[in-house]
Each structure stands twice: as C-alpha cells, then as structure tokens.
Amino acid sequence: MLDAAIDACCIIDLLASGNAEAVLRASGFKWHLPAAVQGEVQYCRQYDPALPGKTVNVPADISGLLTSGVLTLCDPENQDELELFTHYAATFRSDGEAMCLALATHRKWVMATDDRKALRVARQAGIAVVSCPELVKAWADAAGPDQSTLNKVLQDIQVLAQFKPNSTMREFQWWIDELAKT
Q: Which DSSP symbol is given to 45?
C-alpha cells in the first residue's frame, strides 16, 4: 500500500461527498494528514435544513477519519523536510500545500490535491499526484453505487465544496459523463 499525503482541498471535497471514509479506503493508499493541512480544514458546507436550496458553513469534522485510522497525522521529522517545507512555503499562500509537497517529496509519497498550482509544482518535482475525480472514480469502481447515489456524490462535491474538475484533470471526462446520466 502506497503512502499519500492529502491536502485540504481534497479533504474538503471528500467531506462534501458524504462518503469521505469510504472513498479514502477504496483508494488503496495509506493516508497521511500533515498538521498544517489539519489546521486549514476548518469549515465545510452542508445543505441548510431550514432553507432548501441554500447552504451553510459548519465546522469540519475529521475526527472520525483520524480515530478510525483512515488518516494519520504527520509533521516534518528532520531538517531536510523542514527545508523543503520552507522552500515550498515561499511558493504557496497555504502552509498545507507546502507541507504536503515537502513530505511527499522527501518521503516519496503520492500527493492528493485539486489545487492547480500544487498539481503543476508536484508534477514538476516528480511527485505522483491524484485528485478528487480519481479518488471518487476509484471508490465508484470498487463500491459500485447506483447511478443516483453516484450523481448525488458528484453534485454534492460541486455544490458544497464548490469544486468542478478542470479539463486537464484525469477522470474529467468520466465525471462529466457520469453527471450527464440520469
């Protein structure tokens, strides 16, 4: 099982799906959550039960993912990782992306992110990357949800996480095709 560091944008997307644990388990990775990323995952959106069609921000709860062992917290452990973190921190506004990149680079981990700049920088550094569409497709292939469940997952990610894959992402066409099915 390959190790992978996950960024805040991917965690928030998966929380919006309502199936974060199942998606992460289906991926085949051993997931690591850098402490800086944990600090960035503050809120997510959910549908407002009082106002249909509206959303509200609620505190993000990743405690279940941590206590179940699906996510393991991690930090830089040596000077090389701290120097890489400092290097990447000069490139990003977010310490989460910088820490994910530093740990993935030094430890030869996969990195999960949906951030365009982080995807580009990771690929340039030779880091293997996965994105939300790839993770959701792996879950759909493994779990075989019915079409209405899959559509709800994809729509919830788009509405609640405000994420839509761009055309350069792997599994972009799969995402579009699945949403077109009724």
A: E
